[in-house]
């Protein structure tokens, strides 16, 4: 779930600047976004756990590119990790296994490391 800390003017205006990114926190994927508007003098940030909304991933992909990952098998990232990170349904997971997956660099790092660590794990 997204966490919003500041209420913005409802409709982004031409002066609005957006930024978005992902990072690994506590062994899990986290996304963050920020908005700054010099016209209205507002700043806001939000974020949540997981890969984030599609526009966040699109922005990261445009800036940093994506990494094609094999899913499953000896050379692929673990299916369990893919499912945990993206919350895929089984048909989506089968498709990812068949076609591979376009991950952001941070997602790829997490998936190659075996996926999210279990909460409170040791
Ligand atoms: Zn604005």
Summarize this structure briefly.
The chain is α+β, with helices and mostly antiparallel strands. It has four helices and six strands. The mean pLDDT is 87.
The run of helices and strands is EEEEHEHHEH
Strand percentage:
25-35%
Cα-atom radius of gyration:
16 Å
Total helices: the number is 4
Largest sheet: number of strands, sense, barrel closure: 4 strands, antiparallel
Q: From the structure provided, what is the oligomeric state, counting identical versus distinct chains?
A: single chain
Spatial arrangement of strands, main beta sheet: 1-4-3-2
The domain tally reads: 1
DSSP strand tally:
6
Q: What is the helical fraction, as a range of percent?
A: 25-40%
Note the overall shape.
elongated
Mean pLDDT: 87
Structural class: alpha+beta
Poorly predicted runs: none
| Distance linking N and C termini | 25 Å
Bound ligand species: zinc ion
């Amino acid at each position: 779930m997204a966490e919003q800390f500041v209420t913005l003017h409802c409709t982004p205006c031409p002066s609005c600047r957006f930024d978005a990114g992902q990072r690994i926190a506590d062994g899990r994927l986290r996304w963050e976004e920020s908005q700054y508007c010099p016209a209205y003098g507002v700043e806001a940030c939000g974020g949540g756990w997981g890969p984030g909304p599609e526009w966040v991933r699109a922005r990261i992909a445009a800036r940093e590119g994506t990494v094609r990952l094999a899913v499953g098998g000896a050379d692929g990232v673990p299916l369990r990790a893919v499912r945990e990170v993206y919350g895929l349904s089984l048909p989506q997971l089968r498709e990812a296994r068949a076609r591979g997956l376009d991950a952001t660099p941070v997602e790829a790092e997490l998936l190659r490391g075996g996926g999210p660590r279990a909460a409170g794990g040791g």
